[in-house]
């Protein structure tokens, strides 16, 4: 049986191609991977998170960026987390963000396995990343992976509504309730009937 081997793309081929697409893609180091759309709660969680980051980081050297900011991980893969923070100056026309310190992914129905397994490993391979935060989109909850140095193994903490997301590497804290402000989940709606 003859099986055609697919040719790997380069990052430059991916960036050139992706700019003309109507939907968003990530690059897994070999080929484009379509990114799924999220729910309205996903979008609101992102908005609350980004507002909290921008407000608290205003005037400092660290900058929050949104879902169109690329992070190079292993094997030339480029991921587009929901939000990230860098404290490194960058060229606004670049495709990849240098010196990423914190990465945030809001889970969607189809992204859980990738965000919880594949991206944990990929983000761990980026020496500048000190914190990776996974935000639930169907209930209040964060899974926080953190480390002090690049060669350390991630320490994992789970946060709920009563907790505060502390990020000493960028000098800010955000109460979990701020991230989930004004969001109602389906099981909460059923309980109110």
Automatic annotation (TrEMBL):
A Pfam family per the record: Uma2
Positions of the Putative restriction endonuclease domain: 12-172
Top-level taxon of the source organism: Bacteria
Protein name: Putative restriction endonuclease domain-containing protein
